[in-house]
Design brief:
Chains A, B: This is Dipeptidase. Chains A, B: Residues 202-359 form the Peptidase M20 dimerisation domain. Chains A, B: One of its GO terms (molecular function) is dipeptidase activity. Chains A, B: Its EC number is 3.4.13.-. The structure is a homodimer of 467-residue chains. In chain A, the strands form five sheets. A six-stranded mixed sheet of chain A has the order 1-2-6-3-7-17, with helices on both faces. Chain A has a four-stranded antiparallel sheet with strand order 11-13-9-14, covered by helices on one side. Chain A has a three-stranded antiparallel sheet with strand order 4-5-18. Chain A has two domains: 6-203 and 374-462, Zn peptidases (Aminopeptidase, 3-Layer(aba) Sandwich); 205-259 and 305-372, 2-Layer Sandwich (Alpha-Beta Plaits). In chain A, strand 1 and strand 2 form a beta hairpin. The first copy, chain A, is built from 14 helices and 18 strands. The first copy, chain A, has 467 residues and is of the alpha+beta class.
């Protein structure tokens, strides 16, 4: 296996470190808060800034793509090797809201380096992790003497991720031909910890459902009628209670259809991670673990589907009491899905199950929304192996595997483009995503640069198209 | 059995009918809405008006009793027969809120006779039913030639019933000696229907409980943590679902301890009532009956204890979705109790049961309030038999038996005074309590007058104290 000498890459990065951080700081000064309408112009400015910077980096194509909401940025840098694979990098340039008075030690939009950390809103989520690709591709070219990357490189950096990506799928569908890729690399996740570099291999999907239950035509007196008519709040509760069996397994017939079970190797790899349950519980702000029998906590959040109540309501919730049988009740459910599960199939299973649970005299309405498919890249996928090798070179340590329990718009790329989704992120749990004093570790940020400097060559070498 | 000729009573009532209705209309013009602070002066005026009217009726004692809220009226007319029993009549002079724009065909506080009905807020609940006692005692005296009633007659007419009687128990405790009675007669209920005169023999008690369940210290992300920590909304739902077994019987161990079961005779008497389930469901605004196996609808609402959810809430209840595991959830429960059940015992049983249901990692807090004991007068009680005979004479029909599913402050009289509680009411379901166009049927109102005109003599004859 021929490799560019790693020292060449490292030297290049050290030489360009200061300018890279200055540029990133300039971008972080733009408060591109997509959830706040008064920052709409800032989000547009952030997109324009990034497109210009990508042009400056060398991308022959860098465009701002409008949506009915905030714009995305698309850039493309074809390889000079027609057999090279095509890689699409996904990230986002919008950020969560932030205000000094939320508990920040410095202005969230005035980036500040303290010690070996860069503090700013978006430092880790996600501007920092988007930006390491710019210096990464330059280091790749410099070290290899190429004038174009070893892979066909595309970037799609959306502007509404922190607002739920309402227009993302339509955007991807609209531009599906230009976005076509052999693999998607998502740089919007993290690693296990500073000391344990990891690659995420999948994320859970999501199906959301609101169930409304209607009983009497109006609230009625619980003295006059209580004990003789069905109560929709009771029906809602019984529905929720019936979601799980005594092993905390989802009890909806058909829910587990198609689930890709964990292999012994995957379970062993999860078990290698230095997991501290007490520490995990502190992060979860919770006081006990509880979940499906026969699985560890990490297996439960990464590789098992769930049914979770996000909200429940019905009847009188104010101070004191009101002796009524309420007219209606409501439950908001979300189902996290794992590889092999189909949101449409889950919806059918939930509908059939709910209809059977609800007693006579109660009408039940289900509304589904927000379906996101799960992603899972097999451990032996050649692109995943390239990521692991590149990261291993950059970090000088064994790279382990994680998954992501949440769900994200990357699944739309997988669905529309039919490409596997890989995750390359260098953020760590202490970075404080969505919290005050968000930061990125500068050493890790530069390891991200270095990883991509190795990655494109490795990918092109091991995963070429047949000529 | 010597009886006053009924025709004498009826003639007296006819002669005084017009003045009686004029007086009642005058009282109904006072908008004594206890729940609305801007009507506080009206409630006081209503009390003053009633005390003056009772004095005019002949009660040697008629007083306004202040409370920290709205005042009650107390009146007393001792018998000239020292061996006579003492009867305490309970009613209330405050009314529900009412406004023309709620759907009234006439001003709710400008009483109007249309056809054979008197329309006004309070016509049936409860001024009309308090007021029939004034003409009733005069008719009793006129027909028997007495100058004092055949029983020691006391009236306690409270001013906060429509606001939950917050000061009633303290008032009764404060004046327990003066209120001492052999029986309490509550005139604040109704009959089965215009065609079916009935006497209510009991009402259910009530224990109210709010359960708060605490999980994570704050709402947490259902993707990152879902499936691996306990969810307090799920715990709340499972608690509610565990309230009842598959026969809709309350599944809390010890809940039924002491319950006085229905006798075969009581069940047969309930079954004699012309019960139309379709009509009952329309009144209940409900679409099916459902309740404890082995009992009819009337048995379920009158004679069986219940556990009912009045409110449930937790997590996100707004539009759209929010993928969280909520930090907390809440359930408001009310338990209707029947004779033989003790609210304190029920509270202990519920606490022990709830603690056992809640999983590790969820903290559970129970707050009990609003305990009201159940009342039940045995069918063979001499005072009840007097009420049935007096009502039978007035209505000229067989008097049947009902119970009341609700709970009321009369239970405080039973508890503090140690006297059985009887119910004498002439209102019918169509009277529209708490609704627009509340009315009282004039024929029934005068039957109420006539019943009390017979009742005091009958009671004194059949239930004298030993000399």
């Amino acid at each position: 296996m021929s490799q560019t000498p790693d020292s060449v890459v490292r030297t290049y990065i050290q030489q360009h470190r200061a300018a890279f951080l200055d540029d990133l700081a300039e971008w972080l000064r733009i408060p591109s808060v997509s959830a706040q309408p008064d920052h709409a112009a800032d989000v547009r400015r952030s997109a324009d800034w990034l497109a210009a910077k990508l042009t400056e980096t060398g991308f022959p194509t860098a465009e701002v793509w409008p949506t009915p909401g905030a714009p995305a940025v698309y850039a493309e840098w074809p390889s000079d090797d027609p057999q090279a694979p095509t890689v699409l990098v996904y990230g986002h340039h919008d950020v969560q809201p932030a205000a000094r008075e939320d508990g920040w030690d410095s202005d969230p939009f005035a980036p500040e380096i303290r010690g070996n950390r860069l503090y700013a809103r978006g430092a880790a989520d996600d501007k920092g992790q988007v930006f390491f690709h710019t210096l990464g591709v330059r280091a790749h070219l410099a070290a290899t003497g190429r004038t174009a990357p070893a892979v066909h490189l595309k970037l799609l950096i959306e502007g509404e991720e922190e607002s739920g990506s309402p227009h993302f799928r339509a955007l991807v569908e609209q531009h599906a031909e230009r976005l076509a890729a052999d693999a998607v690399i998502v740089s919007d996740t993290g690693m296990w910890s500073e000391d344990t570099p990891t690659v995420c291999t999948g994320m859970r999907g999501l199906a959301e459902c609101e169930i409304r239950l209607y009983g009497p035509d109006q609230d009625i007196h619980s003295g006059s009628f209580g004990g003789a008519v069905p109560n929709p709040a009771t029906a809602a509760a019984r529905l929720v209670a019936a979601l799980h069996d005594e092993h905390a397994r989802v009890a909806i017939p058909g829910f587990y259809d198609g689930v890709v079970e964990l292999t012994d190797r995957e379970r062993a790899l999860f078990a290698e991670l230095p997991f501290d349950e007490e520490q995990w519980l502190r992060t979860a702000r919770s006081h006990a673990t509880r979940g499906e029998s026969g699985f560890t906590t990490l297996e439960r959040v990464w590789a098992r589907p769930t049914a979770e109540v996000n909200g429940i309501g019905g009847g009188y919730q104010g101070p004191g009491s009101k002796t009524i049988i309420p007219a209606s009740a409501m439950v908001k459910l979300s189902f996290r899905l794992v590889a092999g599960q189909d949101p449409d199939h889950v919806e059918k299973a939930v509908r059939a199950w709910a209809e059977r649970q609800v007693p006579a005299g109660i009408r039940c309405e289900l509304t589904f929304s927000g379906a996101t498919r799960p992603c899972l890249t097999p451990l032996d996928h050649p692109a995943l192996q390239s990521v692991v090798r590149a990261m291993g070179r950059a970090f000088g340590e064994t790279v382990r595997f994680t998954r992501e329990g949440g769900s994200g718009p990357a699944a739309d790329l997988q669905d529309v483009l039919g490409a596997p989704v890989l995750f390359l992120g260098i953020s760590v749990p202490s970075d404080g995503w969505h919290a005050p004093n968000e930061k990125v570790e500068l050493d890790l940020l530069l390891k991200g640069v270095e990883t991509t400097a190795y990655l494109w060559g490795d990918l092109a070498e091991h995963w070429r198209h047949a000529p």
